[in-house]
Amino acid sequence: MAPVNQDLPVLQENIKNVIQDLLQILAQTSNYDSAGRPSRDALASDLTTLSASLQTAYRTAAAVGPEPGVPETLIHYVENGRNPDIYTREFVELVRRMNQLMRGKMGAFREFRDVLAREMEGALPEVKEDVRRVVEATGGGGRGRGRRGGIEGS
């Protein structure tokens, strides 16, 4: 789990203040009297307060930095009005396909290593011990694993 930034609660409080200021402006504009001076002064005061709250939230957010864990592509996906669960499902399917492909490649390279080792031992008996050491260092079986896991006839 990622460490929690100490400024995060402060940022959350700043965002709550911005929301509160926006609600106050909403109330002022719904009761605005174009002819009355008190409404204009109150609205101007609330707009000034909102500006200060936004600046404070911006400075705190810059200090906190980007929050890890939420991919930017997911944010764009949600901003475009799509369901994040569908994004997650598609991402999991993509990772599963990539894992299967990688597993297949790893198996093919393992088999190639073993075939190459057998052929090198047969063609160059003087390097048999070196080949066996390389196979064991790369995760191959060596003795007693038979044809699939190591060098044949070990």
From TrEMBL:
Lyase among keywords: no
Keywords: Activator, Nucleus, Transcription, Transcription regulation
Location within or outside the cell: Nucleus
GO aspect biological process, one term: regulation of transcription by RNA polymerase II
A single Gene Ontology CC term: mediator complex
GO molecular function, one term: transcription coregulator activity
Transmembrane region(s): none
Domain of life: Eukaryota
Biological function: Component of the Mediator complex, a coactivator involved in the regulated transcription of nearly all RNA polymerase II-dependent genes. Mediator functions as a bridge to convey information from gene-specific regulatory proteins to the basal RNA polymerase II transcription machinery. Mediator is recruited to promoters by direct interactions with regulatory proteins and serves as a scaffold for the assembly of a functional preinitiation complex with RNA polymerase II and the general transcription factors.
Subunit structure: Component of the Mediator complex.
Similarity comment text for this entry: Belongs to the Mediator complex subunit 10 family.
UniProt protein name: Mediator of RNA polymerase II transcription subunit 10
